[in-house]
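Quick check before the chapter quiz. The format below is the same one you will see on the exam, so make sure you can read both the input and the output lines.
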Amino acid sequence: MSRLSLVALLLLAALGASGCGRKINTDDSAPPALLGPPNQSRANLGFPEFATKNTTRVPGSGPTQIAAAVLRAVYPDPARRPAAITLVDAGDWRVAVSAAALMAPPINAPVLFTNGTDLPDATRSTLAALAPQGSAAAGNAQVIRVGNVAQPSGLKSSDIPPGNPFALTRSIAGLLRSAKPGKTSHVIVASADDPSFAAPAAAYAAKSGDPVLFVTRDAVPPETRAALSALAGLQRPRIYVLGPSSVVTPKVTQELRRLGRVKRIGGQDPVTNAIGMARYSDGAFGWKIVDPGHGVVFARAGKPLDAAAAAPLSGAGTFGPLLLLDGADRVPQPLAQYLLDIQPGYQDDPVRGVYNHGWIVGTKAAISVAEQARIDALLEIVPVRTPDAPPVP
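Here is the expected output.
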């Protein structure tokens, strides 16, 4: 089988499998795709690392390639392209997490990464393939440039001026606010110091379009305060603080209460914090994933740029939360229990059931094939029987 045929076969499989410091290696000039490692034997075609019956892996070697591959998977149809693309410097995870919200309507501008003012090949080729036509909510811009990033030629851009991460996230919040005037304001406030606690915000922001702002452990930066004050000038926002008091102290939540109604969500460690975000519901806010029939995105803790790169998987397709793993070779017990809680079941015919699907983000060095197999089993639809049900023939 030719390499071209193999690529086509694996891309077709990817569509079928999808269901219910700054130094980053981005020199690979090949267009990103959801492919098994090129050195895999033809006998297995990259499986099960590439995909299992309930999971699909995005095996990029870094966030730039992951972001490019994710957008190829989310927008496979040339007739259904993103309105614009947001370009973010891969040097700061906080800006990337905040910019994930720009994917949501009405702006519709998912994130790709640059290396400062350099445009990596993976980003360039994906931008050319997606050919954004312009976002009316962003002044018909085809590209939204956040800070000091590359300027693609031949594309109309809307530019957020350079600044520190808090200033850039404030500007992103302002763009989101102007695109949705008069809407009820929900704001996620996350730790600027601990990326593993902040990472789940990217997935929800990509679905909801709610701004993500940042605080330090003991203080509200002036840029964040100004962003919240602008929202409070329109209507008192609901502020959801993501993470425990060990990363965002009560001193900070007390100050935030002067600007809005504050609730804390999440858990005491990165794994349970992501689960808490997935379970949470407060009116129109929150995933409320407490039952089967959903997509789920799995990534390693400590890789917030990967979370931002994968965020479009949460804002399209099976629309599911980000869950975190704390090692490459085991599923943490709280995560396994949560997946059991939402595991699909059927009584008579699995065809009439609902299904979960998992996206595995990163190479097997981040999430091993054995761990992927365990996740696959926890996502699998299983037979269930009521006490008085007859045995299965």
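If your answer matched, good. The first strand starts at residue 55 and ends at 58.
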